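Request:
Um, any thoughts?
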Amino acid sequence: VQLVESGGGLVQPGGSLRLSCAASGFTFSRYAMRWYRQAPGKERELVAAVTSGGGSRNYADSVKGRFTISRDNAKNTVYLQMRSLKPEDTAVYYCNAATSRGDYWGQGTQVTVSS
């Protein structure tokens, strides 16, 4: 199983980024996918989740209305569109798949929101 995140970077407050997570090694379309983040000195927190078919999505209160999770099962990829970014969104963002064979994580991608 491999999860590879991309799309992070430095952005000014109010800006936007789109993260991608390319999955391989398992049947992507069978499993819910999640984005987590971890800021320095803080615990990892769940940001957003999407069901296997993409029909249901959930968000942390702190990102509701600003972030959108989506997936393309034909491309084995899950996305996190982030808008109206705030300095408190600065963190390493991780993609997660909880499959029947275990719980898998990507290496993370750094998002820094700063002027």
Remarks:
- The first strand starts at residue 2 and ends at 6.
- The CA atoms of residues 26 and 98 lie 11 Å apart.
- The mean pLDDT is 97.
- The chain has no helices and eleven strands.
